[in-house]
């Protein structure tokens, strides 16, 4: 697979988001299936894996450590802190909590160092400078190599970067979630920060994997997201029909169209689609070889954008927990 720069690292142009193997969209994937996805991803050329302490409250990190511990040198490892406190989910950016979370993550991941360690959410009760300062101490101690931020604004990124260089900023970005275009993408370019796009296929929707909201299982976060509810969902289904037709015309799948669109937007963007399906993992990898014409790029953006997508991406409560523009 083609590669892109991620701070001091060279990583596959498309990374693997590992969250869904443990939580987020229903029950965890069966162990054998999760192993096929993880091992298959490395065999397919993925060299960038993304996890977090909060995913399954440790389950996801333990899974990666157990399944891929003997292949640690084959991938750049990203994990996150700030949404757990011990064995419970809690937004907490206190320096002592972040450091303790890192220690627990290192054990679960069966590694001596985490390559990229994100502050998963900014706890606004704690100055961003204090939280990033704690991560800088972990860099100095050799427990993490680089620092990232997730779901923050351009202003917060700049404040954090003044404390310690930020390697990557991660937030949701796809044809149907475009708020990074307001300010944070430009801030990343200004500072030399890689932009990591999570949910790059619209939480499965723009891949055709979320056509029936009644099929979502207990624990599926989409049940609480406005775009997947009622009239908004019905309107968005009509939008997907046109998007799928455009993908067919472009000679790729809808998921590949999303990923190729992101890769074409800027060479500093690295999308990290997640899946529990080994075939979908391979399909996503194939997007790295797709080149879209300027005409197709323009048609994607005219079809799926903030004016045509119905409903906000988060509920008001979830929106209050993040720091992004828009």
UniProtKB/TrEMBL annotation:
All copies of domain NADP-dependent oxidoreductase, residue ranges: 13-304
Key words of the record: Oxidoreductase
Signal peptide feature range: none
Source taxon at top rank: Bacteria
MF-aspect GO terms: oxidoreductase activity
Matches recorded under SUPFAM superfamilies: NAD(P)-linked oxidoreductase
Keyword Oxidoreductase annotated: yes
Cellular component annotations (GO), alphabetically ordered: cytoplasm
Record-given protein name: Aldo/keto reductase
């Amino acid at each position: 697979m083609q590669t892109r720069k991620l701070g001091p690292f060279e990583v596959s142009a498309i990374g693997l988001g590992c969250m869904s193997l443990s939580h987020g969209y229903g029950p965890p994937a069966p162990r054998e299936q999760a192993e096929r996805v993880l091992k298959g991803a490395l065999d397919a050329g993925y060299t960038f894996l993304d996890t977090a302490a909060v995913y399954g409250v440790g389950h996801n990190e333990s899974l990666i450590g157990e399944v891929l511990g003997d292949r640690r040198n084959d991938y750049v490892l990203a994990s996150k802190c700030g949404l757990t406190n011990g064995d419970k989910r809690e937004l907490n950016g206190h320096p002592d909590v972040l450091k303790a979370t890192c220690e627990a993550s290192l054990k679960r991941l069966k590694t001596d160092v985490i390559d990229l360690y994100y502050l998963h959410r900014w706890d606004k009760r704690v100055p961003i400078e204090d939280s990033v300062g704690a991560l800088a101490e972990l860099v100095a101690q050799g427990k993490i190599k680089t620092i990232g931020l997730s779901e923050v604004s351009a202003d917060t990124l700049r404040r954090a970067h003044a404390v310690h260089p930020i390697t990557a900023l991660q937030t949701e970005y796809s044809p149907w979630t475009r708020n990074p275009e307001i300010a944070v993408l430009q801030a990343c370019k200004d500072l030399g920060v890689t932009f990591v796009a999570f949910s790059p296929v619209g939480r499965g929707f723009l891949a055709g994997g979320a056509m029936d909201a009644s099929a979502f299982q207990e624990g599926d976060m989409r049940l609480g997201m406005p775009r997947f509810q009622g009239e908004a969902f019905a309107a968005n289904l009509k939008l997907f029909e046109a998007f799928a037709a455009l993908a067919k015309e472009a000679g790729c799948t809808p998921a590949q169209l999303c990923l190729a669109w992101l890769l074409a937007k800027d060479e500093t963007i690295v999308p990290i689609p997640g899946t529990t399906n080994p075939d979908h993992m391979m399909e996503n990898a194939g997007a790295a070889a797709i080149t879209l014409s300027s005409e197709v790029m323009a048609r994607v953006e005219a079809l799926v954008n903030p004016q045509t997508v119905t409903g906000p991406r988060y509920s008001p409560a979830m929106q209050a927990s993040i720091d992004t523009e828009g």
